[in-house]
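Sample entry (171 residues):
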Amino acid sequence: KVYMPARVFDGPAATRIDPKYRANEVVCLDEVFRGDPRRSDILRIIKAKIWTEECRSLWHEGEFILDIINYSTWHEAVISRYGHSDLYKKHQDTRWDCITYRLVTMVYYVNKVSERFTGGALTLSKGDQSLKIDPKHNRAVIFPSFTMHEVENVHLNGDQWEDGRFSLNYW
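Predicted structure, serialized as tokens:
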């Protein structure tokens, strides 16, 4: 089985499964293709797109934290699948003990068209302000990894595994 239950950080060097806090499945593409990441069409295409002159210029025009992409030397890619009643409560992608790793988060939605689920919105939060973003196919959301965010409950309209909410998460 390639997809595994998602884990949450439990201290500086430990993780655990906590379905009340995070209930979804993931596949770590870097682990699957560690021997040769060029074998993965997804990793190859995403890396090629991120490093185009158009994107590099876009990162530079944005906030300083996004410009860090131009100088980053470490990347991680995970595909997440959210099924019926799956969620991920409010969290940050950066661990304070490893702040140099995950600096910028990209969530790229790769759902079926048309979506066969409801819910699953990504909500970004800062203080008492929040921004809710629906998980539409072929949409990318990019934000600083220290931003608090969550994924609301997903409700499948069918019973097929592939009807879930899918995203490529890239740091």
